[in-house]
Amino acid sequence: MSAKVLTSKLRALERQDLVVRRVIPASPPQVTYSLTDRGHALEPVFRAMEKAARRLFPEPRPSLKASGPTISRSKARTRSSDERMMSRAEDKGPATDRRKARKSRSVGSAR
């Protein structure tokens, strides 16, 4: 979440009197947020929602066996860098030929 989005959400909660914002005069200034009495009153609701979510959507258990073929990150990285190198070589093709032509002309004229 970006700082801008977080700030807008916290300000909305502040307008609804669910959190209180305190600025601590320091260098740089610090801001803290804490629940108001109204915010604390919602705590049982959030606990019940959390409990229901954990019951309905249990955390996945780690699998002992990988499903399907896997590729290591280093191989994936190597493959993508190889592809990048190939595309760069293709891009350099005509330019390299022009440089060779210029170089041979300058060598011939120096004689």
Your description of this structure?
This protein is mainly alpha-helical. It has a domain at 3-41: Arc Repressor Mutant, subunit A (Orthogonal Bundle). 63% of the residues lie in helices and 11% in strands. It has helices at residues 3-15, 37-41, 43-56, 73-110; strands at residues 19-24, 30-35. A two-stranded antiparallel sheet has the order 1-2. The termini are far apart. The mean pLDDT is 76.
In short:
This protein is mainly alpha-helical and 111 residues long.
SSE topology sketch:
Elements: H1 3-15, E1 19-24, E2 30-35, H2 37-41, H3 43-56, H4 73-110
Antiparallel strand pairs: 1-2
CATH architecture of the domain at 3-41, by name, is Orthogonal Bundle
The portion of residues assigned to helices is 55-70%
What coarse outline follows from CA principal-axis ratios? extended
Give the SSE string.
HEEHHH
Q: Tell me about the biggest sheet?
A: 2 strands, antiparallel
Strand order of the largest sheet: 1-2
Unreliable runs? none
CATH superfamily of the domain at 3-41: Winged helix-like DNA-binding domain superfamily/Winged helix DNA-binding domain
Q: Mind telling me the CATH class of the domain at 3-41?
A: Mainly Alpha
Mean pLDDT: 76
The percentage of residues in β strands lies in: 5-15%
End-to-end distance, in Å? 66 Å
Output the number of helix runs. 4
Counting DSSP E segments of at least 2 residues, the number of strands comes to: 2
Radius of gyration: 31 Å
For this structure, the CATH topology of the domain at 3-41 is Arc Repressor Mutant, subunit A
Protein structure class: mainly alpha
